[in-house]
Amino acid sequence: MRFNSNTGFTLIEMLIVMIIIAMAGTLVFVRVGKSTSDRQAKVFAQELISLCKEARRLSVERAEPTTVNISSSDRRCSIKGYKKMIDIPAEMAIEGKGVGMADDDVYAVYFYPDGSSGGEELTLSIPGQESYSFRIDLLTGLLARVEEEG
């Protein structure tokens, strides 16, 4: 049986294949990291919407105004007088129009017993990702996503 040295791979061919595999792995890793961050932003947006809906429901049920507090120092959102809290992701920025102040660093979204609200608009954003904007209707207190213009 004869051994022919021309049938195997050269060291250079193997190095090129390993470099291609490493580059593909890096691209996958970057993409998975971005999708995890996107998912985190989407989950937080859904939790904040759920918290606002719960505050509206409690306000109507208890026949008293209810407030969703957004604390910039604690990085938490909660319903005043209610135990449920959600954490704001570290890189998440929250901007609001028509949002009141409950304390020095606590912003407030108001809901009233007749189902109405303060008419606030919230924008949640992480740099380099899609932002989520929600408007809380002044008369009905219902939440609706604001689509980006342009």
From TrEMBL:
It holds the Pfam family N_methyl. InterPro entries: N_methyl_site, Pilin-like. The chain crosses the membrane at residues 12-32. Keywords: Membrane, Transmembrane, Transmembrane helix. NCBIfam families: IV_pilin_GFxxxE. This is General secretion pathway protein H.
